[in-house]
Specification:
Blueprint: H1 27-34, E1 38-40, E2 46-47, H2 49-56, E3 69-70, E4 72-74, E5 84-88, E6 92-95, E7 98-101, E8 111-113, E9 133-144, E10 149-158, H3 162-170, E11 184-190, E12 193-197, H4 199-203, E13 207-214
Antiparallel strand pairs: 1-4, 2-3, 5-13, 6-7, 8-9, 9-10, 9-13, 10-11, 11-12
Protein name: UBP16 hydrolase
InterPro entries: Papain-like_cys_pep_sf, Peptidase_C19, Peptidase_C19_UCH, USP, USP_CS
Organism: Probosciger aterrimus (Palm cockatoo)
C-alpha cells in the first residue's frame, strides 16, 4: 500500500531517535541500523507515481514519454506495535564462498522501548504516547557451527498478563503504566533437562531469537 505523507512528518517517530545513542553490539544498535534513514540516489532513484504506472502498468511498452527519476529517502519503521515482539538475529556472514557463524554477544535488555522505531502515526498506540515497552519472556540460543549444533531455550514462568490478553483478544491498548519487567522465574531448557537460572545468566546468552510481550 502506497500512501502520500506530509514530508515534514513522514519520517517522524514516537520518540526522538537522536536521543537514543545506542551502544554498538546491542539490540538497540541493531534496530537503529535496521530502521535508519537511507538516501536513494544514482541507480537507486525512484520513479514518480505516474511514471511508475506508465513504466510497469498495462501500457508499459509506450515509450512516447520519458520517465523521470528523482532522489528519494527511504526508512523502515513499525506502523503497528505487535502484542508479541519476535527479534531474529542474523548469526551468519559470508566468508568467501562459505557461510560463517557469528558468535559475537549482542546485548539485550529485559525491557525494551520500541518508540524510537515506531512511526509517529503508529496505529495501535494512544496519541501522545512516547513509550512502547516490551518485557522479555523467552530466548533461543544456538551452540555449535553452521553445519551442526544444538538449540536450547530460556523461558520465564510468570503470571498471566491481563493487559496483553486485552490487546490480543479485544484489540484494546493497555492503559496501565507498567515499566518494569514481568515478574517470574527464568528456566534453561535443553532437551529434557530443565534448570532454574538467574536473569543475569539469560542476559549473557548468545541470543538467536528474542521474544518480548507488550507492557504498554
Amino acid at each position: 500500500e502506497v500512501l502520500t505523507e506530509d514530508p515534514e512528518t513522514a519520517f517522524c517517530t514516537l520518540a526522538n531517535r537522536e536521543d537514543l545513542k545506542p551502544e554498538e553490539g546491542s539490540i538497540h544498535h541493531c534496530l537503529y541500523q535496521f530502521t535508519r534513514n537511507e538516501k536513494l540516489t544514482e541507480t537507486n532513484k525512484l520513479l514518480c507515481d505516474v511514471c511508475t504506472q506508465r513504466h510497469y502498468g498495462p501500457k508499459k511498452n509506450v515509450k512516447s514519454e520519458k520517465c523521470i527519476y528523482t532522489n528519494a529517502k527511504k526508512q523502515m519503521l513499525i506502523s503497528l506495535a505487535p502484542p508479541i515482539l519476535t527479534l531474529h538475529l542474523k548469526r551468519f556472514q559470508q566468508a568467501g564462498f562459505n557461510l560463517r557463524k557469528v558468535n559475537r554477544h549482542i546485548k539485550f535488555p529485559e525491557v525494551i522501548d520500541l518508540a524510537p522505531f515506531c512511526t509517529a502515526k503508529c496505529k495501535n498506540v494512544a496519541e501522545g504516547t512516547t513509550k512502547v515497552l516490551y518485557s522479555l519472556y523467552g530466548v533461543v540460543e544456538h551452540s555449535g557451527t553452521m553445519r551442526s549444533g544444538h538449540y536450547t531455550a530460556y523461558a520465564k514462568m510468570r503470571s498471566m498478563n491481563n493487559h496483553l490478553s486485552d490487546l490480543v483478544l479485544r484489540g484494546q491498548s493497555p492503559q496501565a503504566l507498567e515499566t518494569e519487567p514481568v515478574k517470574g522465574q527464568w528456566f534453561h531448557i535443553s532437551d529434557t533437562h530443565v534448570q532454574a537460572v538467574s536473569a543475569s545468566k539469560v542476559l549473557s546468552s548468545q541470543a538467536y531469537l528474542l521474544f518480548y510481550e507488550r507492557l504498554l
